[in-house]
Write a structure and sequence with these properties.
Structural class: mainly alpha
Order of helices and strands: HHHHHHHHHHEHEEHHHHHH
Mean pLDDT: 89
Shape: globular
Number of helices: 17
Strand order of the largest sheet: 1-3-2
Distance between the termini: 64 Å
Low-confidence stretches: 1-8, 308-314, 424-430, 432-440
């Protein structure tokens, strides 16, 4: 008689590549199916815009940036055009091509996570597959927007960049800059990277500048140089987006008062709130966002250079990954735009930290995963509640936004506390969400 099969233990399942890749296929198939079939394709509207832009480009030569101002950086044309090689006339066909492109990039990120190495090139102290498994759980938790937006293209790029940052910072710099020319957010991660390396001009600034020169040259060759930076000004007409953290007081107040108006910004196809004080709040956030990033840089600089020099940080990747989470959360909390896909900016630092076995990231991982699930509850599952001012979806949005603020405060406190750790105290880095002892 053959021996009975023994169920996979948690550890064996974690190491099973077959189970991992099966989960990879299932996760991507499910979110694509949910976004295009169960929810009537309406939640892939951004992808439909990409198809229309590419159709104009391929059929009429009217390319974004090259022919006029555009809301996205010039590099965003590349992934849109790659998907358009399949079709520019079929909505369904383009959506399938887009999802396959995102899945291919995520697959490369999974391979990179499985091959994660520490700063000295040695294997991490834990099974790196835990980062890959968490990444798949995050995609499923966030739902259709995890694959149906331009941000899905840059997330795997950021994962690879963070994985190589300690050993090949120039590669990380080039990847992050290329990502920033697709969607701006990855460029902020250059801030902790430039502070962490010994030769910042050679290893970070120069590669980033070279990528910028290549992009600017390509746009200039196409006749679009006057529109190269138009994406920086196209956002100026935005009001306070309904999902943004800054809109939370008015969204909550709108449950009890008709004074809060929820309206569609037709030009940008976003839902915004209008009430006494919202215009001022939007303007204030426009000023606070760069100030917040400046504050994050100041904290990181102090933590790296003015903490206890005998101790410093345990590893350079520890500093960069914590810094990446700090600036990503800052970009969300102090942003008058609050699109659901922004939550995807939080995922790469967590996935990389888990794959590298960096200390005290487990609670942060659960926290960010919870944010992803709440975001899917808000959009698309209960978005009609938010737009109509009904309680379930609105409270889910308020809770999500409060947790984002807590994550930002906890991350900043963890970095501050680590820098102040006395040299003879080898205690681990505080978890990003452990702000309970902030007053000690």
């Amino acid at each position: 008689m053959s021996r009975p099969e023994v169920p996979l233990s948690t550890g064996r399942l974690l190491r099973s590549r077959t189970a991992l890749w099966t989960a990879f296929v299932v996760a991507h198939a499910w979110v694509a199916f949910a976004g295009t079939v169960l929810q009537g394709r309406s939640f892939f509207n951004d992808v439909e815009l990409y198809r229309q832009w590419m159709r104009l480009g391929f059929e009429q030569g009217a390319w974004p940036v090259l022919s006029g101002e555009w809301v996205y950086p010039a590099g965003a044309i590349v992934p849109m055009a790659v998907a358009a090689l399949v079709t520019t006339t079929s909505t369904w066909g383009y959506q399938v091509a887009w999802v396959l492109l995102v899945a291919a990039l995520n697959g490369l990120a999974i391979v990179a996570l499985l091959r994660a190495r520490t700063a000295d090139g040695s294997p991490p102290p834990v099974e790196p597959a835990r980062g890959a498994w968490w990444w798949l759980a995050f995609i499923a938790g966030l739902g259709p927007v995890a694959v149906g937006r331009l941000d899905a293209i840059v997330a795997p790029v950021v994962i690879v960049a963070l994985l190589v940052a300690a050993r090949r910072p120039w590669v990380a710099s080039a990847l992050l800059t290329a990502g920033a020319w697709i969607k701006v957010a990855p460029g902020a991660i250059l801030l902790p990277l430039v502070l962490a390396v010994r030769r910042p001009w050679r290893d970070v600034v120069l590669p980033a500048a070279l990528v910028c020169v290549v992009v600017a040259g390509a746009v200039a060759a196409g006749g679009g140089l006057p529109h190269l930076t138009s994406f920086l000004t196209q956002q100026g007409s935005r009001g306070l987006q309904i999902e943004s953290v800054g809109a939370t007081p008015w969204v909550l107040f709108g449950l009890f008062s008709p004074v809060v108006d929820r309206y569609l910004n037709v030009e940008l196809i976003t839902w915004e709130v209008s009430a006494p004080g919202t215009a001022g709040a939007a303007d204030a956030l426009g000023a606070l966002l760069p100030l917040g990033l400046a504050g994050a840089v100041a904290l990181l600089w102090w933590a790296h250079h003015r903490g206890h020099p005998e101790r410093r940080w345990a590893t350079s990747e520890e500093f960069v990954v914590r810094g990446a989470l700090l600036v990503a959360t800052m970009l969300i909390v102090f942003n008058k735009v609050g699109s659901p896909q922004f939550i995807g900016w939080l995922a790469p630092p967590v996935a990389v930290a888990l794959a590298l076995g960096l200390p005290r990231w487990r609670r942060t991982a659960w926290w960010v995963l919870g944010l992803a699930v709440l975001t899917q509850v808000v959009y698309p599952l209960r978005y009609s509640d938010v737009l109509r001012g009904e309680v379930p979806g609105t409270l889910a949005l308020v809770l999500r936004n409060v947790l984002l603020v807590v994550l930002l405060a906890g991350t900043a406190h963890g970095i501050w506390r680590e820098a102040r750790q006395p040299p003879d105290d080898p205690g681990p880095l505080p978890d990003a969400t452990d702000a309970t002892n902030a007053s000690r």
